[in-house]
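Subject: Signal peptidase complex catalytic subunit SEC11

B.,
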Amino acid sequence: MNVVTDTIQSLRSMRTRQLAHQVINLGLIVTSALMIWKSLMVVTNSESPVVVVLSGSMEPAFQRGDILFLWLGHGSFRVGEIVVFKIEGRDIPIVHRVIKLHEKRDGRVDVLTKGDNNDVDDRGLYAPDQRWLNRKHIIGRAMGYLPYVGMVTIIMNDYPYLKYALIGLLGIFVLTSRE
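Prediction pasted inline below.
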């Protein structure tokens, strides 16, 4: 009888240890992902080093679902360059091409943008009474891309329950796997 009790207690202790080990592993994965993201932010000098193209406004250059890799740098902008910018009061960044530069007397350069697939420039998207974008609006310049890989993000945003189910399944998988 004592052997059975000792075996059950040993199994419980092992399960607790395994669960603690899996929780720590999950924490390490999340922490590593955050550290990689923050490192990319520092290296690229951009608040968002990777973005997903959410609309067809830049077709044929970029398709909906393409992932763009950004770099801000310190050089001046050029006409034809593809930039990602944020407008005050809007959370979603916009990916468009620089079509015109406006040099100010103090040497700063503002830009006007337009989507390749759009008929007009972006002044209608800017904040009221804003005619140009300046450096504070620009998150980064497109330096490379992966086609269609971002469709996973778009699908998860379009169907939030799918996102929660996938995150839950991944969490369960990490917590229940033995090695």
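The chain has three helices and six strands.

T.
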